[in-house]
Write a structure and sequence with these properties.
The chain has 18 helices and 16 strands. Helices cover about 45% and strands about 15% of the residues.
Length: about 525
Amino acid sequence: METVTVASSDYTDILTPEAIEFVVALDREFGARRVQLLERRRRRRATRTTELDFLESTKQIRIDDTWSVAPPAEDLTDRRVEITGPPERKMTINALNSGAKVWMADFEDATAPTWDNVVSGQRNLRDALDGKLDFTAPDGREYRVGTDLPTIMVRPRGWHLPECHVRIGGRAVSASLFDFGLYLFHCAQKQLDRGSGPYFYLPKLESHLEARLWNDVFVFAQNMLGIPRGTIRATVLIETITAAFEMEEILYELREHSAGLNAGRWDYLFSMIKNRPDVVLPERSQVTMTAPFMRAYTELLVRTCHRRGAHAIGGMAAVVPSRDPVAAKRALNQVRQDKRREVGDGFDGSWVAHPGLVETCREVFDQWLGFEPNQIVRKRDDVRVTAKELLDVRSTAVTVSEVALRTNVSVALRYVAAWLGGRGAVALGGLMEDAATAEICRTQLWQWISTGTPTDYGVPVTAGLVTRMLREELDVLAETGALDEDSARRFGQARTLLTVLLSERTCPEFLTLPAYLRHMTGGNLAPAVPV
């Protein structure tokens, strides 16, 4: 029998033998399939010789009008405002008190996956459900959770990530199954007792086969814990271009557990670059949700969801409200305009990253929805989207400004340094950024280097140019006295990591995977025990 090792931790009430046994059972049952599907991703990308298209093999699912997803759970019927953020103690309290309909506890893009972060996040979720969550700030201010909690959803880490602090025979378990398993083990019954349920967001899926794997995990886990089948509900983030071609199939695979689809932005563009590296995207500030290929994707998502009786959830408003009243008014007007576009297109709800945006988002959806909890009845039969439209970037020859170059360099460097220090949600330039922002910044830099994209001042983007900008960014920070010994070390690690990734011949799949493996996998393992 293989032995299981678990890194030491102060959270023994979370890492109980029974909870670890449950996670190990999930990984033993599904770990091999996960690895096979990750290999399928790589092989699919490496061997594709034609443009992406809808799958001929699943055409019958798409044309069959008779199937639909399960009716929404009662407390997932109205999702007009969802707030997202890491399950860090203070941010959890603020999110739960924000007035949003749903809080998504994000173990993925908004959490730097240190061992302490991922396990303490699980305790915070349990404590919130037990009514024991509080926090006292260094200045003495006290934070407590109110009595009217929003619906809680949990986003585990993606299939590509391991959790190296729990090993089976020396092999790291899946981070997805670790996050999912611990939450389900500790909180599923608590949620059921309060009239809710264990609800999830599923990130980074690239095919319906990966959705099928999740559905099989749900069935297996519910049987193990004695929970009725269909209790678990999950919303899938359509944040890869390959998944955009399989939205119907993803809903079909999860139909008894489905809670709809969500439309992202940065990860979707990041996926476009990985899958179509020769199609150069312009500066990210120019690729808005109104770009033709982005509108094709979001309108198809709404039509697909509503046709199958599922919620369509819109993208993120990441603004951090300013203390400057003029700047704050301008930013909130931009948020309002974006949310009006979403609700007008048929979305049933939308994301915000900061409690200060909840009221603005809610007002927009209230004005449109009135007393209706959603607009799933609006089928959007007028929408017809082709494969060509999903891929139609329509860019003429792209040139890159020095401002855009330096912005991508600065955001990537500063975010990665913060991430290595344990922070996954970072305020930069008036926006609450997460790992998705760092991914689009570094993949754009990689693409511009690999294609020799010209700058607007006459020279091509090269590895040398970007390396010099990374060095200059560090020099500015050092000269202003912003770097102590610890932060200087982290910025140095971030610079080295980005330099390596930007020099690769093919676009590295993820930034967070090598960063995690190189810098976050330490820790003393407990004595091996058979499980």
